[in-house]
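> call design_seq(struct)
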């Protein structure tokens, strides 16, 4: 078909319009893609070094993998609640795994977090040793690690960004100083039995060391028996029963946590003795049940160990992902309670 010049001009204009429209569509598609990437927090972009796939959840939340020790004590429950509530408050997606007090379960959980390319891994190590291999794997994957509550004994501290938690040695010293003060005038031997936490765990090692340091210049203060109660009430009761069968002259019980102390109180009462009087009791944690027993005079002295680590952990996650330097060691502030102080503090106790 032959076109006149007017028709040719119209066709040319139509073609130009179509070409411009097609180009615009192409551009807008690619701009849309970049816009999507731009919505990622800078932190995640920097965390994806090495060209890995994006590490965010579908709704662009920061993903935190957390491996918890277990649910062995009231302290642990309060700690888990604090971490879950704080993750929600910060708007992070929390992948939570309970290791049931087994290191192998924690290693499996950490490997699974690495596979899932979470943004940050945090964990409270069941025991101190044996973490180098899996921590190296996290490091190779470019995923920052934060320790909470308990430490690892790795010589290479570049495996983790920070360790947030209590000074367990100082907790043991506080218990020891109270003992020294209480028995300052003792002329006879003071027989102490010790319920240790989980064998190989940082709090069990450090709380023992702290107490021993504090009492070492007082030869009257003697630890006559020391055994693990695994931080649980049931084991605390069982081991205290065996202590009572083996020794009829126990003056003091030092339990590395409230739960073991509370289990031991049941054994002491079943043996016809009065806890807090016939046997003086020192525990660590200051959770609600421990504070109630202290206010009733069954526990004489509690060294506080603060489980509310959630807010500090979430802040550290945010800072690490933002590329900020954070302190390698963040120590939790804590106090101590005599029976009288426990009674006064109990109404406001949150956990
Ligand atoms: O690591 C902290 C300790 O672990 C707490 O004192 C104890 O109760 C818990 O199980």
């Amino acid at each position: 078909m032959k076109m006149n010049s007017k028709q040719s001009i119209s066709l040319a204009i139509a073609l130009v319009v179509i070409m411009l429209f097609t180009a615009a569509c192409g551009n807008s598609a690619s701009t849309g893609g970049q816009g999507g990437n731009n919505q990622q927090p800078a932190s995640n972009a920097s965390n994806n070094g090495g060209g890995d796939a994006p590490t965010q959840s579908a709704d662009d939340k920061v993903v935190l993998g957390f491996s918890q020790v277990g649910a062995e004590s009231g302290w642990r429950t309060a700690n888990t609640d604090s971490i879950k509530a704080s993750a929600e408050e910060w708007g992070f997606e929390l992948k939570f795994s309970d290791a049931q007090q087994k290191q192998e379960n924690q290693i499996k959980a950490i490997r699974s977090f690495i596979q899932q390319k979470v943004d940050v891994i945090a964990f409270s190590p069941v025991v101190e040793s044996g973490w180098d291999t899996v921590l190296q794997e996290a490091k190779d994957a470019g995923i920052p690690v934060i320790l909470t509550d308990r430490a690892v004994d790795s010589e290479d501290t570049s495996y983790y960004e920070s360790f947030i938690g209590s000074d367990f040695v100082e907790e043991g010293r506080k218990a020891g100083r109270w003992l020294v003060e209480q028995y300052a005038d003792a002329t006879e031997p003071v027989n102490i039995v010790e319920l240790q936490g989980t064998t190989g765990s940082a709090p069990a090692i450090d709380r023992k060391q702290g107490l021993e340091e504090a009492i070492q210049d007082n030869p009257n203060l003697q630890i006559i028996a020391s055994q693990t109660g695994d931080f649980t009430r049931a084991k605390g009761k069982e081991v205290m029963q065996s202590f009572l069968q083996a020794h009829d002259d126990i003056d003091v019980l030092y339990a590395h946590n409230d739960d073991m102390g509370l289990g031991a109180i049941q054994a002491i009462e079943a043996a016809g003795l009065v806890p807090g009087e016939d046997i003086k009791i020192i525990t660590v944690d200051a959770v609600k049940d421990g504070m109630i027993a202290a206010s009733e005079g069954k526990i004489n002295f509690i060294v506080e160990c603060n489980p509310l680590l959630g807010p500090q952990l979430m802040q550290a996650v945010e800072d690490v992902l933002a590329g900020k330097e954070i302190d390698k060691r963040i120590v939790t502030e804590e106090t101590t309670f005599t029976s009288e102080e426990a009674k006064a503090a109990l109404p406001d106790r949150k956990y």
